[in-house]
Fold:
Amino acid sequence: MKDSQILKKIRDGDESALDFIYKKNYKMMTRLVINNSGSEEEAKDIYQEALLVFWQKAKRDDFVLTSKISTYLYSVCLNLWRKELDRKSKLTNEMKDSEEFNDEDKREREKIIQDCINSLGETCRQVLMYYYYDNMSMQEIADKLGFANADTAKTKKYKCKKELDRLIKSKYKASDFLD
Structure:
């Protein structure tokens, strides 16, 4: 089928022309995306979007095709894929910026907490460090610090945690921890 026949069918609303174009150009259009860092799924989506653009333009009375349909579709696919790559790049950069901000924010929060832990008494500091940083069990903490049992260590950890919370709240506002 010639391009002029395809255009006539499109203007007449004959969707068999769309099916013909789809099958005829599928490999070339999807290869364009796949060879430029795209997946097969992305290639299919871009090609279908390009076909939709072509179909809508071709139905207009003022549409003049100055190249082969395959060339037109190729340029539409290329432009759509470039826009998608640009969007992905911006998204990736935003994620990196966000991660950097979150890492910096996290380090700042950890420093605040560490400073407050260092302000606690020796026993509280040891209990919290052993539990949160060394991931020791209550029984291990009890044995290490000479407590009667794991329940005593658990009670001490609870009281120390409450003291830490009070200390943090007295030195810092909630807005220091919220974005």
The chain has seven helices and no strands. Helices lie at 3-11, 16-34, 40-58, 69-119, 122-133, 138-145, 150-171. The CA atoms of residues 3 and 68 lie 7 Å apart.
